[in-house]
Amino acid sequence: MRPDLDPRALLRRMFDAAIAAAQPARCIPPHLPAPPTGRLVVIGAGKASAAMARAVEDHWPGPLEGLVITRYGYALPCERIEIVEAAHPVPDAAGLAATQRMLDRVRGLGPDDLVLCLISGGGSALLNAPLEGLTLEDKQAVNRALLKSGATISEMNCIRRHLSAVKGGRLAAACHPARVVTLLLSDVPGDAPTDIASGPTVADATTCDDALAIVRRCGIALPPAVREVLESGRGESIKPGDRRLEGHETRIVAAPQLALEAAAQVAHDAGLAAHILGDSLEGEACDVGKVLAGIALQVARRGQPFAKPCVLLSGGETTVTVRGNGRGGRNVEFLLSLALGLNGTPGIHALAGDTDGVDGQEEIAGAIVTPDTLARAWNLGLRPADRLADNDAHTFFEALGDAVATGPTLTNVNDFRAILVH
């Protein structure tokens, strides 16, 4: 590492490169299907769906129409595809109305027509149509409970698939007999299409019993109508082998690994070795912080398993079991735990952030940890361990001036973590 390099600036350049690598304008065009003999209808949902729609419009050679749903503040103007904004992470009436209109658009299509479905992270909340017998209020209550439960994203989406009229393959079934091609920006560990926005266009092998087992294990309180849907089996999703999904295609156009490799290239250009520890790390954010602090300390003190200077990169999606009343998110919770584990060790800096620009429910992507993070906090009267216990890491890092804000990034390939040991 060159002595003239600023660790903060280098970490931010790596984060920016990770976000840039997953921009829809770059990732969508190579994956566009051949034009159909009939109509092309574009649908979709997610934090990146408006940017994905713009990329389709810019590169599609013929006529098209459609509707996609994105998060408030994430819209881009399109000429032929309608962009609707709705709430995330808790669904709202705007998302419900837009999803119902989307279903109306795809009903009545023929076998010569093609539905191009653009899906990215955030679609689980934005694509919102409760099963018959459930209300928007039921779905909102479930989502709030899930966000506080500590359940993994795969577990959350298993439950969501069995309470929805569009998830778990039901959106694709509604398009039958038109063919469906789904383009996915993955924001989930392992890149499983069933977990990206709860799999609206792919078959689902999980069951209502699986969802109930997660509910019991995580202690999630359910409204009575929701429990009835699961216990009765009325919430069963579209299963593998369903003829309505025959001939459909699913293509992942960007994923966390792509973003980590882009960040690694920035490190290499700065004369640093970059080691990708994994693109799908999961677990409680504070526990992952402790583990990665231990690895960074071993590098700093022993030169194991890697020699310094180097950068330790990782992606995936941690979870937070909310027990406090603070302002938090999984990335800043990870960072505060990491800082406590490092305990001011010289020569270690870190950045973690969500590539969609929103960590938790805050318009803040993440934050930066420096060797003097704890000392500066104590000088301000902040007690780091108490802030962690109260799930109040956003307040902590904002007070230090170390929050990282990107604004809407128009993409979403999950969390980004970089630890610089120099």
From TrEMBL:
<dbReference type="InterPro" id="IPR007835">
    <property type="entry name" value="MOFRL"/>
</dbReference>
<feature type="domain" description="MOFRL-associated">
    <location>
        <begin position="11"/>
        <end position="231"/>
    </location>
</feature>
<dbReference type="InterPro" id="IPR038614">
    <property type="entry name" value="GK_N_sf"/>
</dbReference>
<dbReference type="Pfam" id="PF13660">
    <property type="entry name" value="DUF4147"/>
</dbReference>
<dbReference type="Pfam" id="PF05161">
    <property type="entry name" value="MOFRL"/>
</dbReference>
<protein>
    <submittedName>
        <fullName>DUF4147 domain-containing protein</fullName>
    </submittedName>
</protein>
<dbReference type="InterPro" id="IPR037035">
    <property type="entry name" value="GK-like_C_sf"/>
</dbReference>
<dbReference type="InterPro" id="IPR025286">
    <property type="entry name" value="MOFRL_assoc_dom"/>
</dbReference>
<feature type="domain" description="MOFRL">
    <location>
        <begin position="310"/>
        <end position="415"/>
    </location>
</feature>
<dbReference type="InterPro" id="IPR039760">
    <property type="entry name" value="MOFRL_protein"/>
</dbReference>
